[in-house]
Amino acid sequence: MNNNNNLSGETIKSLRSLLSSPKNILLTTHKSPDGDAIGSSLGLYHYLKNMGHVVTVSVPDDMPGFLNWMTGSEDILVFEKSRKKFEQLLDKAEIVFALDYNHFMRTGIEMEPLLSSSNALKIMIDHHQSPDDFMKYCIWDVMASSTAQLVWDFIVALSGKGAIDKTIGENLYTGIMTDTGSFRFTTCTAHTLRITADLLDIGVRGDLIHQKVYDQNSIDRIHLMGYALEKIVLMPEYQTAYISLSKEELKKFNYKPGDTEGLVNKVLSVKGVNVAALITQKENQIRLSLRSAGDFSVNQFSRTYFNGGGHEHAAGGILNMDLDDALKYFEEAVKKGYK
Predict the structure, then answer these.
(1) Are the CB atoms for 66 and 33 separated by under 8 Å?
(2) Is 253 in a helix, a strand, or coil?
(3) What is the domain extent for residue 232?
(4) Is 26 within 8 Å of 107 (Cβ atoms)?
(5) How many whole angstroms separate alpha carbon 275 and alpha carbon 290?
């Protein structure tokens, strides 16, 4: 087991005692939930339900359609559609888990104050940098491939590998697979691969999961990807490239959550590019998805300029301005960041 995830003997003993009797538990994750957010949440959801707890998974907004096949996804509560129900569940919750995020602000401006003011005991399981100190228990490791990997560690530490059935395994495999770029990122360690081997041993079909996540594209998404790739803007003197998409452009292609998944990695794959960005206009905000290669930290870049953060080579951010101003601001930030 990874020794840097805060699962000390004393912590395990305390958590095992805490979860030894039925509790009302609310599992939360970040805005625009991805494969790791949903995979880790549903994996933990099934484990806790199997233990006899009353559990709800809540997401701030809709998850990508290519994750709807996951067992338990039909039970997920979408905050922006069911705020009153969320408030009722939060009021009853004895334990709140923060999964795949480490600041309540990652849940959005409406959900954040509700979580911050909750008296429920809070447990964080996450692998992003610079966590806040809102939690009672912290299972945190920036070297972990994914939050799903840390949920595996959490379950195994409390109950052993036998507690992970095929349903839990499929959800955790999805989280690990998506957050490692199908096992190709440097965060995919020997420990990560041992976990996936154990998941295959209990009947998880990695090939079928990959097909469901990556090979079920709508024709609208294919057209959007082609259109977006033609819009790549190069800043060769700064080894940077970006794509921008307005609300109108997204609407033209009947955008659904998850339709731009992986697009920023295509930008990073351009020869000579070490920093890539996808800049999208959604609701009344500009969202940035950032990737880098080499020594450039998009985590620090995003924290400095875009009210965000994440990992050294993968981060996100938000700007409250119109798209034209955001593009000018981004280009100026790139020039400053490369000085």
Answers:
(1) no
(2) coil
(3) 220-337
(4) no
(5) 7
Widest CA span in the chain: 60
* Same domain as 111, residue 241: no
**Secondary structure element (H or E) that encloses residue 92, with its range:** helix 83-92
- Whether 75 shows a pLDDT value over 50: the answer reads yes
What is the C-alpha to C-alpha distance for residues 256 and 265, in angstroms, rounded to an integer?
19
Same domain, 300 and 190: no
**Percent of the chain surpassing pLDDT 90:** 83
User: Band of the pLDDT at 339, cuts 50, 70, 90?
Assistant: low
Q: In terms of domains, do 226 and 207 share one?
A: no
Look up the pTM and report it.
Answer: 0.88
In this predicted structure, the answer to whether residue 50 has a pLDDT above a threshold of 50 is yes
Q: Same domain, yes or no, for 68 and 203?
A: yes
Contact between 220 and 253 (Cβ < 8 Å): yes
Domain boundary among 192, 213, 234: 213
Average pLDDT over residues 163-180: 97
Q: Which residues contact 176 (CB under 8 A, 6 or more apart)?
A: 36, 39, 145, 146, 148, 149, 183, 192, 195, 196
Q: Supply the pLDDT for residue 4.
A: 55
**Residue 85 backbone dihedrals phi, psi, to 5 degrees:** -65, -40
pLDDT score at 134: 85
- Give residue-wise pLDDT tens across range 6-48: 788 899 999 999 999 999 999 999 999 999 999 999 999 999 9
Both 198 and 245 in one domain: the answer is no
Residues 292-316 have a mean pLDDT of: 90
**Residue 61 counted as domain residue:** yes
If asked whether residues 131 and 202 sit together in one domain, one would say yes
pLDDT at 111 over 60: yes
In a domain, 1, yes or no: no
**Residue 96 is inside which H or E element, if any?**
strand 95-99
Residues contacting residue 41 through CB under 8 Å, at least 6 positions apart? 27, 29, 33, 57, 59, 76, 99, 100
Q: Is residue 25 part of a domain?
A: yes
State whether residue 189 is helix, strand or coil: coil
Number of domains forming the structure of the chain: 2
